[in-house]
Amino acid sequence: MRVLAAMSGGVDSAVAAARAVEAGHEVVGVHLALSTAPGALRTGSRGCCSREDADDARRAADLLGIPFYVWDFADRFKEDVIDEFVAAYAAGETPNPCLSCNEKIKFSALAERAVALGFDALVTGHYARLADGELRRAVDADKDQSYVLAVLDHQQLSRAMFPVGDTPKPRIREEAERRGLAVANKPDSHDICFIPTGDTRAFLGARIGVRPGAVVDGATGDTLAEHDGVHGFTIGQRKGLGIEAPAADGHPRYVTGIDPDSGTVTVGTAADLEVTSISANRAVWTSGRTPEGPVECIVQVRAHGGLAQAVATPVDTPDGPGIQIDLREPLRGVARGQAAVLYVPDAAGDQVIGCGRITGSE
């Protein structure tokens, strides 16, 4: 097959491209320029899309003997990922930009261009597996990225290849070393790629501005503190609440509610965070077929953690197909804007069957 390998400049995508070459595919490497003003160097494990990353990707492509290009997707990335991220936080939500990037950039804009140019598939260094067209967790549970890939539909998955998903990360680095790839020991990227400082609150504040509001005790209604904007908070947050005095019961307080219209941030106990049902819209069923009724599954509500046994039922919402998820056990820290990803365990490993964007919980 003729395949396009997305090469970020990291070890995973370099090994993925190398494995595609070794498998006999005709491989072309491409690096996505996602920043309108890329820095020259990365800051350790923070950030991406620097000129250093592009150079690392080019060197890997040269070693593999494959053509290499840099494609400018900066404007599309700003519009579909960064602007959406900022708007979601301003609306009191907690988005995951990796989901948006996979959905709208890598497996939409990039994949569409690849198909238009005659490529049969898109190769990436994501830690996930495809078996008989079904998306499954990676062998390396600590690196598994099936959660952020669950937004992909059946057609997108049919054109995807994840060559490293069957291998633990330490062995990927060993393989890169054996292949002579200079990125073998390059640090993994962490946090949000377009916020290299790691200070999400400052990044959002510079774009949203000051929108004062109150931090209120959910039990008493008392105002405990003032704040500069709901974008500085997320459900389940414990630190940085601005509350000076401890609670009367001596227990920690957590963010339990965010009202972007009034600017009110409500806090309560850990028990107040527990939910037993979740509503989601923008449903995607990875098989391409909507289940005819309720499905027993495991739901995951954060990229790392937040799992529970559940029953998921397809429903109609004002925004189109949705999912009603009833939990067999309570979950904490469920926030609007996050993804609820549904898995079904089987002998071949946890299979992703669908996902939706969380709009509410009870």
Automatic annotation (TrEMBL):
EC numbers, comma separated: 2.8.1.13
Reaction equations catalysed: S-sulfanyl-L-cysteinyl-[protein] + uridine(34) in tRNA + AH2 + ATP = 2-thiouridine(34) in tRNA + L-cysteinyl-[protein] + A + AMP + diphosphate + H(+)
Keywords: ATP-binding, Cytoplasm, Disulfide bond, Nucleotide-binding, RNA-binding, Transferase, tRNA processing, tRNA-binding
Domain tRNA-specific 2-thiouridylase MnmA-like central: from-to ranges: 202-268
Swiss-Prot/TrEMBL GO biological process terms: tRNA wobble position uridine thiolation
Location within or outside the cell: Cytoplasm
Gene Ontology cellular-component terms listed: cytoplasm
Listed InterPro entries: MnmA-like, MnmA-like_C, MnmA-like_central, MnmA-like_central_sf, Rossmann-like_a/b/a_fold
Matches recorded under Pfam families: tRNA_Me_trans (PF03054), tRNA_Me_trans_C (PF20258), tRNA_Me_trans_M (PF20259)
Region of interest (Interaction with tRNA), residue spans: 143-145
Active-site residues, record numbering mapped to chain: C101, C193
SUPFAM superfamilies assigned: Adenine nucleotide alpha hydrolases-like
Domain of life: Bacteria
GO function terms (MF aspect): ATP binding; tRNA binding; tRNA-uridine 2-sulfurtransferase activity
Site (Interaction with tRNA): H126, Q338
Function, as annotated: Catalyzes the 2-thiolation of uridine at the wobble position (U34) of tRNA, leading to the formation of s(2)U34.
NCBIfam families: PRK00143.1 (NF001138), trmU (TIGR00420)
Protein name: tRNA-specific 2-thiouridylase MnmA
Gene name per UniProt: mnmA
